Task: inverse folding
């Protein structure tokens, strides 16, 4: 039996990157210490904040909502609400949505659900049928759009997401590999932008594996099924490659994040001339004339008209 490096009780995890064995108590403390340190460092929570938590119902966002609720329940000046986006992914989303509802009931947190079907007239399943873009491209853009729009309508001052270290390291690499510098700059914006609610990611220093263990120990739902579309994305390839790399070279994911944080001011300087303005169709903030979501919706409508009228676009 391996023993905790801090107290000699039975260890439940070995952190390859730190070389430490930790017992249940010290593991939970280590995770929460990382989260609190990050929240202080990035001044994530400020007086009188209304925090909208993007609650998918999966382990990360459930753990985040519970953590924020427990940490700040005595703070009268703060308010926490939860927003769930139902993309319309058969066999996957309903289960998570029910779990999200149950959790909010238990915690007594206001919960709001918005669906692609009601907002865009179609579910994600319908949108992606026979389209060339991978589902995650539509899903990610449209989900972020709805989260920002509705969080803003509720007067939220922060939008909190459960992204962990793996998610962030993948996003950083993904944007490097695609040469998307503007998107890279938007991962952790240095300055507030009008019309965009500042995003906070308190779990960004916690590796995915530790999030799984933390969630189990905290009694959260570990939903085994993955989204049926996940494997189609480039992110899935990067995830597998990064996991192999992390195994061989422990600490790689942290290095990607730290390196990015150091580069952040330079990237920000490079992209500062990109001005945001209101989308001509929906009024949300965008760098172009119309926002990415309206562009996607328009494209879908046009394609459908063409199909219905049996005419060909030339
Ligand atoms: S894996 Fe892709 S399609 Fe599935 S929920 Fe995530 S972003 Fe959406
Ligand atoms: Zn211990
Ligand atoms: Zn728009």
Result:
């Amino acid at each position: 039996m391996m023993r905790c490096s801090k107290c000699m009780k039975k260890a439940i995890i070995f952190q390859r990157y730190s070389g430490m064995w930790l017992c249940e108590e010290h593991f939970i403390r280590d995770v929460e210490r990382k989260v609190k340190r990050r929240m202080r460092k990035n001044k994530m929570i400020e007086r009188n904040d209304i925090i909208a938590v993007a609650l998918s119902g999966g382990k990360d966002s459930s753990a985040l909502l519970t953590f924020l609720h427990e940490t700040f329940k005595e703070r009268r000046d703060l308010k926490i609400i939860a927003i769930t986006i139902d993309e319309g992914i058969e066999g996957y989303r309903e289960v998570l949505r029910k779990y999200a509802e149950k959790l909010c009931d238990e915690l007594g947190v206001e919960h709001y659900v918005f669906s692609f079907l009601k907002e865009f007239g179609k579910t994600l399943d319908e949108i992606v049928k026979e389209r060339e873009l991978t589902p995650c491209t539509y899903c990610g853009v449209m989900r972020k759009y709805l989260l920002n729009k509705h969080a803003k309508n509720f007067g939220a001052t922060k939008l909190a997401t459960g992204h962990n270290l793996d998610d962030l390291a993948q996003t950083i690499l993904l944007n490097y590999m695609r040469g998307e510098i503007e998107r890279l700059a938007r991962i952790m914006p240095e300055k507030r932008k009008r019309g965009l609610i500042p995003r906070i990611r308190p779990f960004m220093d916690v590796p995915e594996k530790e999030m799984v263990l933390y969630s189990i120990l905290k009694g959260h739902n570990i939903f085994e099924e993955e989204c049926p579309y996940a494997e189609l994305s480039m992110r899935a390839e990067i995830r597998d490659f990064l996991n192999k790399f992390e195994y061989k070279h422990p600490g790689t994911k942290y290095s990607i994040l730290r390196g990015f944080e150091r580069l952040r001011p330079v990237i920000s300087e490079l992209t500062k001339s990109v001005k945001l303005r209101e989308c001509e169709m929906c009024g949300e903030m965008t760098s172009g004339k119309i926002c990415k979501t309206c562009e996607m919706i328009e494209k879908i409508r046009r394609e459908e008209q063409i199909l219905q009228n049996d005419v060909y676009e030339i």
In short: The mean pLDDT is 91. The longest strand covers residues 79-86. Residues 43-273 form a domain with the Rossmann fold fold (CATH 3.40.50.620). The chain is about 50% helix and 10% strand.
